[in-house]
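Postdoc handover notes: sequence design on the structure in folder B. Input tokens:
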């Protein structure tokens, strides 16, 4: 490209300051978008992994049902541990004090005169809570709520229900086999 520079005709090499500023601005915007998207993807990935773990735990608890229903709350964890059904990534003490991935507890609940079960997860961060509550439906998890008395069928949840369940910075949810 030829230009007139200080009255002389010649070939211009390199970029002008304006062009360089524009290129740097584009690079900064692309980097910022990548960082913001990466954080969301990692959080969503954590939530999806935890959903699989909740479903795995629910499937294991389902194996304990007898003709009279599920065992008492205090017996579910130890029976799962005895059968080797607590996932390896959940620290526990012979089925007691089972830890979830968020540093909280997993408490086992016998619901509705023993005909149903619940998995109470504590310390769920708000962002993961919303994703999990929205996507938890499975063969063995049909209801979710903040307590046994507030359980609602997963397919009947709306955005307001999820916002109410997950309004705190850390939350407790019960994932249940059904609404008793």
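Designed sequence:
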């Amino acid at each position: 490209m030829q230009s007139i520079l200080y009255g002389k005709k010649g070939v211009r090499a390199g970029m002008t300051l304006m062009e360089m500023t524009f290129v740097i601005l584009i690079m900064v915007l692309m980097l910022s978008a990548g960082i913001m998207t990466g954080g969301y993807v990692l959080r969503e990935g954590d939530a999806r992994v935890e959903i699989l773990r909740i479903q795995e735990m629910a499937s294991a608890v389902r194996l304990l049902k007898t003709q009279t229903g599920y065992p008492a709350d205090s017996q579910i964890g130890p029976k799962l541990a005895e059968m080797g059904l607590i996932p390896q990534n959940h620290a526990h003490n012979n089925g007691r004090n089972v830890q979830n991935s968020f540093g909280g507890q997993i408490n086992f609940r016998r619901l509705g005169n023993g005909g149903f079960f619940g998995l109470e997860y504590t310390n769920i961060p708000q962002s993961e809570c919303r994703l999990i509550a929205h996507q938890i439906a499975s063969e063995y998890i049909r209801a979710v709520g903040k307590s046994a008395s507030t359980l609602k069928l997963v397919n009947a949840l709306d955005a307001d229900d999820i916002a109410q369940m997950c309004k705190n910075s850390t939350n407790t949810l019960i994932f249940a086999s059904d609404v008793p």
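Context for whoever picks this up: The longest strand covers residues 116-125. Don't rerun without checking with the PI first.
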